[in-house]
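[job 0417] fold request received: D-3-phosphoglycerate dehydrogenase
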Amino acid sequence: MPKVLVSDAIDQAGIEILTQVAQVTYEPDLSPATLLETIPQYDALMIRSGTKVTAPVIEAAQRLRIIGRAGVGVDNVDLQAATRKGIVVVNSPEGNTIAAAEHAIALMMSLSRHVGEANASLKAGQWKRSQFIGVEVYKKTIGVVGLGRIGAHVTRVARALGMQIVAFDPYISAERAQQLGARLVDLEQLFHEADYITLHVPRTPETTHLINEKTLALMKPTARIINCARGGLIDEQALYIALKEGRIAGAALDVFENEPLGESPLCALGREVILTPHLGASTEEAQTNVAIDVAEQIRDVLLGLPARTAVNIPGLRAEVLQELKPYLELAETLGNLVGQLAGGRVDALDIRLQGILAAKDAQPIVVAALKGLLTPALRERVNFVNALLEAKERGIRVTETRDSAFADYAGSIRLEARGPEGERSVTGALLAEDELRITNIDEFPISVAPSRYMLITLHRDMPGIIGKVGSFLGSYNVNIAGMQVGRKLVRGDAVMMVSLDDPLPEGLLGEIESVPGIRKAYTVNL
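[job 0417] inference complete; emitting structure tokens
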């Protein structure tokens, strides 16, 4: 009989499902040393956020077939090590959707009617009705930043409350937003218009301190901010100053840059602030839902069935995976690249399999390309199982074509993304020993190995441009790892790809774009 180790506190409903097919050892708060020592005897591991499944733990796991995370984030699991060893990692991306959305609405209502402060006052023996005059949300404008599952549910509830909805999500189509009853706007306009601003995005380098001194200055003095998404989306010191000076009306936070919160100037403020200790997923139903969801997937995998929400590569036979694995990496890299070049929102993605790939199973390659396209926005929430669904929910039309006659490389992948800013295309291929190469950008021939940090320019092919760009990079102490220019005609249009050892400092991109002859410059992080 298979053996399952549950090393964090899990709802009993999940344990009961596991006992149907396996011998279950329930040891919450297991120490790292004990986990490393005992993991070789288990076929499955079920965790929450407490257990760290490191590469040494995975290497020691002789029988492990699946790791189940009862929740969304899987940053406590070494996904690369698990995938390399053929271990499926699953999570529960939808189990706490309703709980998190409802908590955001609850905070908005409590903030509007001073519920917390009035409750404390009454329990202290006071009756101060006149001091707790609130505001109605009816006919107010709510700005929803991020229209994923949680943001979409908040939008539906806000609409039912009679609110006007503006939304920002560069990865969702206007048609999808319209279906939800939201009007897509840019961030600056959202901050200008909204009476309430609710955040529903992952924390990434782009979204860290999304709410800061500059963006707070754009808001109405009556604006109220709600964050039940991720800590670090708000510059808490800047928020404190804005609240203390009365430049905005209020804020309700469930997540913080450092948790537990500890000492914070926000705690010294009064009714204009509501703080809760990361309760977004803390409902009985959510805890039960994620436990059942993940336990069912562990049960299915132990019975030889596929998992529903694997966050690494699921469902492929070992021999198929071995054959396609480098092309999946290529497709994901190209998807990530073309999405960043397209400027965020993509309405359509055309995927062309060329050469020998025209005869292969396209589905895994299509999914890998979509995963790459959506990863900058969704991070760990997008995986090889839900990429197609996430693309569909965002109104992205996907088409697939094949060209077996293409002969420049044995097998290559071409992606074309269409969005509000026009069409962008990239092509890539594998060289000897599965070495990835970007071979074409917007029909300009090129041959560049993808790197973590890249600078791409579209410019006129004319003397001096390369030198000026190099001088700018040198003046900011940015080291160039490699560079190549692709062109069709001498002194015509050209593209330049520069591989960098360091990310581009703030402000440098604007200086590069000011060089005469450069039409557009992009930074890409792969």
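[job 0417] notes: The CA atoms of residues 97 and 266 lie 27 Å apart. The first strand starts at residue 3 and ends at 6.
[job 0417] exit 0
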